[in-house]
Amino acid sequence: QVQLVESGGGSVQAGGSLRLSCTASGRALRLYAMGWCRQAPGKARDFVAAISTSGGRTYYADSVKGRLTITRDNTNNAVYLQMNSLKPEDAAVYYCAADLAFVAVQSRPDYWGQGTQVTVSS
């Protein structure tokens, strides 16, 4: 098992930047494909970004391509989501996710963090 804890959320104006972090405990993070999802009030949880175990592959939702970047540091058991050019529609609770399979982490990961709130004001 792996336990995930997100941090780095907060409030920012439109056009600003935030960097979310996800740290893992339990099994080594390098064993897992990692991802980020988000959920706005009254909406379903949506996929945002995924990264393979080595970091060699990434995949993004069309709505965030070119603005959000997922990276990982297996030595420090951490995954990051750099968010630039933020828009009001990016406001949501952001969740870190882990799964042994790269495809599964995009849709039905085995593990979730507790989430971190991102607020974007216009």
What does this 3D model show about the protein?
0% of the residues lie in helices and 52% in strands. The model has no long low-confidence stretch (mean pLDDT 96). The protein has strands at residues 2-7, 10-13, 18-26, 33-39, 46-51, 58-60, 68-73, 78-83, 92-99, 111-112, 116-121. The strands form two sheets. Strands 2, 4, 5, 6, 9, 10 and 11 form a seven-stranded mixed sheet that branches. Strands 1-3-8-7 form a four-stranded antiparallel sheet, with no helix packed on it. It is built from no helices and eleven strands. The chain is mainly β and 122 residues long. Strand 4 (33-39) and strand 5 form a beta hairpin.
- Uncertain stretches of 5 or more adjacent residues: none
Number of strands: 11
- Tell me the helix content: under 10%
Distance between the termini: 40 Å
Instruction: Return the average pLDDT rounded to an integer.
Output: 96
- What global shape is seen? globular
* Rounded Rg: 13 Å
The secondary-structure class comes to: mainly beta
Strand content: over 45%
Number of helices: 0
The helix/strand series, from N terminus to C terminus, equals EEEEEEEEEEE
Largest sheet: 7 strands, mixed
